[in-house]
Amino acid sequence: MFDIKKIRADFPILKQQIHGQPLAYLDNAATTQKPQCVIDAISHYYQHDNANVHRGVHALSERATADYEGARKRIAGFFNARATENVIFTRGTTEAINLIATSWGGANIKAGDEVLITHMEHHSNIVPWQMLCERIGAVLKVAPINNAGELIMESFEALLSERTKLVGVVHMSNALGTINPVEQIIQKAHAVGARVLVDGAQAAAHLAVDVQAMDCDFYVTSAHKMYGPTGIGVLIGKTDILDAMPPYQGGGDMIRMVSFEKTEYNDLPYKFEAGTPHIAGAIGFGKAIEYIEGIGFEAIGQREQGLLAYATAKAEAFDGLRQIGTARHKACVLSFVLDSVHPHDLGTIVDREGVAIRAGHHCAMPVMQFFKVAATARASFSIYNTEAEVDVLFTALKKAQDIFA
């Protein structure tokens, strides 16, 4: 049984009031709140085990290293990575994509080659490829979407060719909620010899991900959208690809031997983890994964899909509201515009009712351009949200509409 009261009790931030109203936090696509177990794990590290990893022989360092590497092992199991060395800690999805673009892209993409992305990508899966293409003379291609916010697969396939070296695709759109058919995309891309990067920042807290079954070459995500801390994420890659990639940064721990004449690099995953890592963040990430596993994706999916259906029905019945993103296969995101009310004004007004939503372009300006809007208001849901919070949102939207009538 999914006990919503018990789930909500796990998140101490939800107990507060905003402007005298109970907090209804509906901005989960930007970042999720943190359960007490994650907060406690981070606090425990700093209170009891604070030391650097991989470097000390004293007790604190050994405990810190065991917990840090234990988190890596748990994350590897969660995503069904082939081995723990395939899991590289990064500062998040953005750094992971930049690592791939700089290291793998710099070594494998040449002038005249093509990188294919989709029209629904987050800026972090657009700008690094633009920078690479501008630097070396490669070509960035964009697969179009339809009016529902779905990838047009026929057009995507038509853009694939022997010149396509990498396909970058978001697993779940942060601006639209669309869930892409990544397995089909990967098969089509591999058929022409292209590598595939899947941006899982939005998906990983909502969908079970098996990177081996998916057969992606790279999967990237961030802890802070999975009930974990900010500033930590992972790049999961295939061993042969990662082994062949040059290091992204130089420094401590990514080396085996250093002299002024030559440096010998460390094995995976440490070759890509220069310097003191975000130890507490990795430990917190591991605890967040444990928390998700304790609930299970079957229960998570049923709860979140039910909540999205409830909110969608209210949106469809709300006069003057236009949904942005109505894909048949979507999750957890309700983006919309309201006649005569700018999304930023909406965000401010509903905040006075204790409701936290996001208003803006959501780091997806091309999506806004496609739908011919400057911005959208976005309510995004998680396991601790309730139908009552959705009701409060729509009551607040009616107040905003009345103000601007």
Characterization of this structure:
This protein has a 7-stranded mixed sheet with strand order 4-10-9-8-7-5-6, sandwiched between helices. The protein has helices at residues 4-9, 36-49, 59-78, 93-108, 127-136, 153-159, 182-191, 211-214, 239-244, 279-295, 297-316, 343-351, 365-370, 387-404; strands spanning 17-18, 21-22, 24-25, 87-90, 114-118, 139-143, 164-170, 195-199, 218-222, 233-237, 255-258, 263-265, 321-323, 333-338, 355-356, 358-360, 376-380. With 405 residues, it is of the alpha/beta class. Strand 11 and strand 12 form a beta hairpin. Helix 3 (59-78) crosses helix 10. The model has no long low-confidence stretch (mean pLDDT 97). It has 14 helices and 17 strands. The N and C termini lie far apart (44 Å). It is 40% helix and 17% strand. The chain folds into 2 domains: 4-26 and 296-404, Aspartate Aminotransferase, domain 1 (Alpha-Beta Complex); 39-293, Aspartate Aminotransferase, domain 2 (3-Layer(aba) Sandwich), CATH 3.40.640.10. 48% of the residues are buried. The chain is globular.
User: What do we call the CATH topology of the largest domain?
Assistant: Aspartate Aminotransferase, domain 2
**What's the architecture of the largest domain, going by CATH?**
3-Layer(aba) Sandwich
SS strand fraction: 15-25%
**Which homologous superfamily in CATH is the superfamily of the largest domain?**
Type I PLP-dependent aspartate aminotransferase-like (Major domain)
**Which word captures the global form?**
globular
Q: Briefly, what CATH class of the largest domain?
A: Alpha Beta
Estimate the helix proportion, in percent.
40-55%
Structural class: alpha/beta
Biggest β-sheet strands, sense, barrel: 7 strands, mixed
Strand element count: 17
* Contiguous uncertain segments of 5+ residues: none
Q: Mean pLDDT, nearest integer?
A: 97
Q: How many individual domains?
A: 2
Number of helices: 14
- What is the CA-CA span between the terminal residues? 44 Å
- Output the strand order for the largest sheet: 4-10-9-8-7-5-6
Rounded radius of gyration (Å): 22 Å
